Amino acid sequence: MSYPYQIKSLEQYKEAYKQSVDNPDLFWGNIGGYFQWKRRWEKVLEWNFTEPKIEWYKGAKLNITENCLDRHLKTLANTPAIIWEPNDPEEHHRVITYKDLYTKVCQFANVLKSNGVKKGDRVCIYMGMIPELAIAVLACARIGAIHSVIFGGFSAQSIADRLYDAQAEYIVTCDGAYRGAKDIPLKSVIDDALIGNRTVKRVIVCTRTRTAVSMIKGRDVWWEDEVKKVETLGLVDCPAEEMDAEDPLFILYTSGSTGKPKGVVHACAGYMVYTNYTFVNVFQYQRGDIHFCTADIGWITGHSYIVYGPLSAGGTSLMFEGIPTWPDAGRFWDIIDKFKVNILYTAPTAIRSLMGFGLGPLQGKNLSSLKILGTVGEPINEEAWHWYDEHIGKKKCPIVDTWWQTETGGILISNLAGVTLAKPSWATLPMPGVQPILVDENGKEVTEKEDGLYKGNLCIKAPWPSTIRTTYGDHERCKKNYFSTYENLYFTGDGALKDEEGNYRITGRVDDVLNVSGHRIGTAEVENAINMHAGVVESAVVGYPHDIKGQGIYAYVIFQGSHGDEAMRRKDILQTVTRIIGAIAKPDKIQFVSGLPKTRSGKIMRRILRKIAEGETQNLGDTTTLLDPGVVEEIKNGKI
Ligand code: WT7
């Protein structure tokens, strides 16, 4: 059985696209018809980008978990919903059917309730990649609590900031997490994050590594004990809370070009419809296919294409606890062989890193089950694209290059596997309902070609169902960040090229946001962390091309303390960044300088610093407006 709204040919794509633009209400109204609602909508779409106010399926009532679980029970009760592969290949994998998942989600939803969680409350989830993470997410959605998952690599300080911003009263975590050869002490990080916190009432701790943890009376409880309690009470089902279409489903923090990370808010109905629609169409999902998305649920990719998209489509989602290079660089290929994976969705950085191990790790691995490959998170270079195509897809699997963002909720620009044409390093065509536009700095549409291509800042003209609704607690910030740069447009922060056929190639961020191994990091955020070090006077952070990570982090630092030698100071700075943000934000290079190139008005000229970090010291452009041009010479000579 397939999906009635699955696009099967280029003609159908063109037709769907045209209808979605000409009559979005009709188009998305039809697709909405394939979901389970507690009450139908009064109006499909109402919007303006000035406030902004975006409402999809207005007036409708639903619960996303009824669409992910209950409605599949009749036909898919014994179909695997989640297949879980542990970090250690010697440990047994788990298969969780739709029936099992329904039961576990209801049980944990009852646990949340019995611990006081109510509709609208914020629940912070800080766990490793175990099935209980997906269960916790769905259990929140079941009772209408707003989940905010924090990736396991973030520090206590980052968690504390997010807890405060979301005013979260509940936390779900694990004792620890396994990732490759490492055990990560999650609960202990949470304990640090909670020092001085007066808002959090309850911490529910799931057992995974059974490392020693402190359990504070009155605050901390074990997941397993709580589940037993609700079992004893005979609670099996948990009614799905009736949610308004526009009620927030979750908050997910992401980095911007300024200040602290912002809490991107997605709404129940639009997010459900759009992640399902894109999952089914981009990956051309067929019933029974095993979909392996290698992202962590701590990022939007995991939310949309491990949990909500696949499950709302009745699909089988493979969830992997570990990392691609442990115990060796053949781990992904072992998993594909073991479970006969049909769709692999991963990041260019992983492909490049695995490429580096040569073909040895592929020896003896049967990848013939693969039908479709996908990439996400950063531009994919042609070399990596061809390696993926040749050695993983054996030249018979279409590759989808999916461009999107935390704020977009789902894929906006991508080819549809085997349906529309792939073009190496091009994300290609917009999804139905998505209207991109390239504009110049003044917001004027780019109409002149440069070397045969249109080139500009990528914006979107109208809302798609999973458009960001607000930034939690600060709507003004949402407006300013995304809807004010250019009037009546959503600004993505990316630059792009477009060809004559309407294909898009994303060239990367045009703001001060870095993309390191597919992780989004703001330069200002890293600078703030470096500046926390007692000996640091000032710093400037830029990105530079990195063979595997895509971008590396280069920090220029003015240091004044007398403590330690340079090597020691570097280590201290790295330790500071790890404390303040997390290891993912550690600079790859730190260069100590006596000054930074500034204009007379005191603005750091990052353009120059970027060029030096890229190793291009010749054409630095106009430096005459600098306060002290001499500092550039010094920085150039000291480049590391
Ligand atoms: C930024 C969004 C979307 C899930 C993962 C990242 C970059 C994302 C692509 C792609 C080129 C891409 C953009 C975007 N990006 N996908 N296929 N080709 N660039 O989500 O952390 O919100 O980051 O990732 O620069 O703005 P995110």
UniProtKB/TrEMBL annotation:
Keyword ATP-binding: yes
Gene3D superfamilies, alphabetized: 3.30.300.30, N-terminal domain of ligase-like
AMP-dependent synthetase/ligase domain ranges (all copies): 71-464
Domain AMP-binding enzyme C-terminal positions: 525-603
E.C. number: 6.2.1.1
Pfam families (UniProt xref): ACAS_N (PF16177), AMP-binding (PF00501), AMP-binding_C (PF13193)
UniProt cross-references to InterPro entries, sorted A to Z: Ac_CoA_lig (IPR011904), ACAS_N (IPR032387), AMP-bd_C (IPR025110), AMP-bd_C_sf (IPR045851), AMP-binding_CS (IPR020845), AMP-dep_synth/lig_dom (IPR000873), ANL_N_sf (IPR042099)
Keywords, sorted A to Z: Acetylation, ATP-binding, Ligase, Nucleotide-binding
Domain Acetyl-coenzyme A synthetase N-terminal: 13-68
Coiled coil: none
GO terms of molecular function: acetate-CoA ligase activity; AMP binding; ATP binding
GO biological process, one term: acetyl-CoA biosynthetic process from acetate
Protein family membership: Belongs to the ATP-dependent AMP-binding enzyme family.
NCBIfam families: Ac_CoA_lig_AcsA, PRK00174.1
PANTHER family to which the protein is assigned, alphabetical: ACETYL-COENZYME A SYNTHETASE (PTHR24095), ACETYL-COENZYME A SYNTHETASE 1 (PTHR24095:SF14)
Name recorded for this polypeptide: Acetate--CoA ligase
